[in-house]
Design goal:
The chain is of the alpha/beta class. It folds into two domains: 119 residues, Response regulator (Rossmann fold); 94 residues, Winged helix-like DNA-binding domain superfamily/Winged helix DNA-binding domain (Arc Repressor Mutant, subunit A, Orthogonal Bundle). Helix content is 41%, strand content 21%. The chain has eight helices and twelve strands. A five-stranded parallel sheet has the order 2-1-3-4-5, with helices on both faces. It has a four-stranded antiparallel sheet with strand order 6-7-8-9, covered by helices on one side. It has a three-stranded antiparallel sheet with strand order 10-12-11. Strand 7 and strand 8 form a beta hairpin. Helix 6 packs across helix 8. The longest helix has 15 residues. It binds calcium ion. Calcium ion (CA) binds next to loops.
Length: 224
């Protein structure tokens, strides 16, 4: 899952980026409202963390413009302000949730996971298919009772496939949601990661879950 963090306080931005990266997210950062708006419109994100007090364009305006363009990406607002009016303004501008600074990183992470669940219509935090279960918060994968160790990128690809269960996930979707802005899309790196993911998830089981859709991408489902 890929996240845009728009926050002008360098220290806070790097703490959030470090935490989310360690938790397996692909993270891009912007340090003012204009850059944030530009990235939000030109790249693909699963969630946007948006500070309200920003240079050039404030977070409320960024949020309003994105919503006016019918962009539905979940937006979590950060605010140093604490009045009820400010919270209402944030939600009225089209944000899905807000957090008041200072906050604990773990709470931010939990709220992001909740927004991701809501945006894909999931109720349980666990993603399950047949005997495979994936926990996006604890980053654990279990197949047929056995724990499977994945690299962060393998995990992110599996999480994306599970969130789009029974749907075709294209290579482009994988590069957009799993890698950040610096990704070199010219290589066959997606196929390499999917191949290693498949070895770990499917090789020992007679029931294959990850299917190749030739010329298009991949699908995870009970049947091909
Ligand atoms: Ca700020």
């Amino acid at each position: 899952m890929r996240i845009l963090v728009v926050e002008d306080e360098q220290r806070l931005s790097s703490v959030i980026k470090k935490g989310l990266t360690e938790d397996g997210f692909a993270v891009d950062t912007a340090f003012d409202g204009e850059d944030g708006l530009y990235l939000a419109e030109s790249e693909t994100y699963d969630c946007i963390v948006l500070d309200i007090m920003l240079p050039k364009l404030d977070g409320l305006e960024v949020c309003r413009r994105l919503r006016n363009k019918k962009m539905r990406t979940p937006i979590l607002m950060l605010t140093a302000k604490v009045t009820v009016e400010d919270k209402v303004a944030g939600l009225d501008s089209g944000a899905d949730d807000y957090m008041t600074k200072p906050f604990a990183y773990l709470e931010l992470r939990s709220r992001i996971h909740a927004l991701l669940r809501r945006s894909t219509g999931e109720i349980s935090p666990m993603l399950t298919l047949v005997d495979l279960s994936v926990d996006p918060i604890k980053h654990t994968v279990i197949r047929d009772g056995t724990k499977i160790i994945l690299t962060p990128k393998e995990f992110s690809i599996l999480e994306l496939l599970m969130r789009h269960m029974d749907e075709v996930v294209t290579r482009t979707m994988i590069t957009e949601h799993v890698w950040d802005y610096n990704f070199d899309g010219m290589s066959n790196v997606v196929d390499v990661f999917v191949a290693s993911l498949r070895r770990k998830i499917d090789k020992k089981s007679p029931h294959k879950l990850i299917h190749t859709i030739h010329g298009v991408g991949y699908k995870i489902s009970e049947t091909a």
